[in-house]
Amino acid sequence: MRVTSADVARESGVSRTTVSYVLNAKQGVVITDATRKRVLDTAARLGYTPSAAARALRSGRSDLVLCVLPDWTVGPLLDSLIDHVTTSLHEHGLSVLVHISRGSRPLTDLWRAVTPCAVLGLLPFAEQDARAMTRAGIVVVDAALDEDPHPQTFSVPQAAIGQLQVEHLAQRGHRVLAYAAPADARLSAFAERRISGVRAACARLGLPEPRVTEVELTVGSASAALAAWRADEPATGVAAYNDEVALAVLAAAHDQGLLVPQDLAVIGVDDIPVARLATPPLTTVWQAIDAQAEYLAQAVLAALDPARPRPTRPDDVFHVVTRAST
Amino acid sequence: MRVTSADVARESGVSRTTVSYVLNAKQGVVITDATRKRVLDTAARLGYTPSAAARALRSGRSDLVLCVLPDWTVGPLLDSLIDHVTTSLHEHGLSVLVHISRGSRPLTDLWRAVTPCAVLGLLPFAEQDARAMTRAGIVVVDAALDEDPHPQTFSVPQAAIGQLQVEHLAQRGHRVLAYAAPADARLSAFAERRISGVRAACARLGLPEPRVTEVELTVGSASAALAAWRADEPATGVAAYNDEVALAVLAAAHDQGLLVPQDLAVIGVDDIPVARLATPPLTTVWQAIDAQAEYLAQAVLAALDPARPRPTRPDDVFHVVTRAST
DNA sequence: CTGAAAGCGCTTACAG
DNA sequence: CTGAAAGCGCTTACAG
């Protein structure tokens, strides 16, 4: 039924050993050009594809990279990241498989089932999981949301985003600030860190404590938050968790007849396509997601092949895109 | 090093056969409760997880479902779809692995490497690929963008979306219509079908030919399109490819001082969160994506287990959400 | 009710 | 330069 290496061997009149050597371009073994060609031709003619299961069983390795996604809402940024990592690793013969883990089934079952050569996590793995995978010979690459003590861990310091937003607003003369936090609990890991960055920046710049309120993606919710922020000494600058939340705030401001940016300045995060279509166009924090993706891909390759140099972490990954909303 | 079924057998004083029977809850074999318990306990204690590679090699099956994504931009809708399918199949012990295929490497290499029990495609597979997978005992489930002749193929008829948009606009009294097509080539498979639905509906309702123009996600691009649409006999209704494009049109209308919906009515597709935050809130076509995802999950399960009833196709998957932009 | 043994398709020392 | 053989960790007829 299935074409095996034994078929290729028989058809080309060599042993399976030779077939394996040729097909895997085994280093240090010399094969006659004639033999090599014969084997390759036969393999092509018979449509031979090696059984990955057998190979994985025997060598304990595969060319699959398992990318485990935490329980986040997948936005366009994460999409680009995955897309870039996939493309980049594909150039090195690796296939990326993405699993959306909703905390569901133990990670162990999954990597045992896939037997990937590497597992890429966008959050740090549990100590125990990481150890088990390493012990099984699987390369583990993960990322952190904070500055991580391990120099080789990739981190996207969320606090820096909040800080950047505050600095931008302060620069424009705003002193009383509000933070529009996301209502989706799955984003709290990000939100908390960004908020702590906002708080720290306010303290450092001598601004009053920022007013943090959860804002759902409705005009009603944003209006309620806005009313609270405008009471007493009114907040004039709003840092939003992301562009969507920022657009809700913008809609509420419009609804209440506030002028943006005169009465209220708003800054988002992500630079989603729609941000520039808002009225007024939204100032936002842009991330160099491709640079981050490339770093992750290179980190996987370097971990897989010690001869490869470790990539250097991209710096300057955040960057304010100034538009008319601030 | 690694805990194998032989270890479990030795530790619990039975043969590997028995271990396999117990762990796989093999039908038709009777095992003493005491033995069963002993084996299960030992397995748990040793932290045994079967080698999927070995199992796949031996039985040719795994509990992995490979979901192949075409070269689309992954939007929130596709995210929900995948998320739902993953959750749903997970309840049946299956793990979904997503591969973003940028047309890159042959599909063959991938399914051979993963040896999944089923492959789920969101577009029809090439005849040849489908045959090869079926021959290898892999269940193939795919979907189509048109009404498909095969009754078991899942289809999300894109033409119906365009038709629905036109019907909605016509109902509101609009006769001269424009279509805002996406500029991203990766969406053309969808766009062409939606446009043909728009054309067909216009013809059927006796409306003039719709004016189709590509619109990028910038105010400038949308303004240019708008100017063209308003020349001569001005179009008063715009069907946009999706909500993002619709928001660009809305921004251009605002820019040119056109009143929406009085001067110009706009309808999108997708109901992204930001649609309701637009000024005015955007009328759009909503899709029952969860019902579609559930259908796909059930289709996979039914294909895997012939004893399961085939799911019935969800109908009424589209639905206009009327807001103030029309 | 349980076990000894074959075999899935590879890779890789080890001989020649 | 090439081949015979072992073995990766399972499942599953086949005996008992």
Automatic annotation (TrEMBL), chains A, B:
Keywords: DNA-binding, Transcription, Transcription regulation. GO terms for molecular function: DNA-binding transcription factor activity; transcription cis-regulatory region binding. It comes from the Bacteria. CDD domains: HTH_LacI. Pfam families: LacI, Peripla_BP_3. SUPFAM superfamilies: lambda repressor-like DNA-binding domains, Periplasmic binding protein-like I. Residues 3-59 form the HTH lacI-type domain. This is LacI family transcriptional regulator. It comes from Cellulomonas uda. The lineage of its organism: Bacteria, Bacillati, Actinomycetota, Actinomycetes, Micrococcales.
